[in-house]
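S.,

As promised, the zinc ion run. Input:
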Amino acid sequence: MQCLRCGAVMDIQIKGDAGEVIEIDVCPECSGTWLDARELAKLDDNFFVDVEEIDFENVQPTTMDAELTCPRCWDTPVLRKVRPSVHPVVVLDTCPTCHGFWLDRGEMDKIRQLSDKLLIASLLPLDE
Ligand SMILES: [Zn+2]
Ligand SMILES: [Zn+2]
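Predicted complex:
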């Protein structure tokens, strides 16, 4: 696979434990990562939530945004920009067809923050 951002050939990294091993594609140049559907949820056992079950809303791309196309789908649909509707700490690119995710460098950390926020929110009384 070639990097969606910079065109470099991506490395395959093995993640997860013996029970659920996943192979993710990581760019050695820009650290961008492609995750197929369900790989995002499996990537980190510490996620409080199933990241792919979060409600996402569409974000209008700005003219600064490069158009990314899906590396998996034969008709290469353009990735949609989405953000979580409750804690919009991160904007992600996702394929409307195969539901894979593209993460730029640092976006994984933001997803962890999101998971932590949702965990904290779950511990607080609803009428804060
Ligand atoms: Zn790259
Ligand atoms: Zn796709």
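The first strand starts at residue 11 and ends at 15. The chain has a mean pLDDT of 88.

- D.
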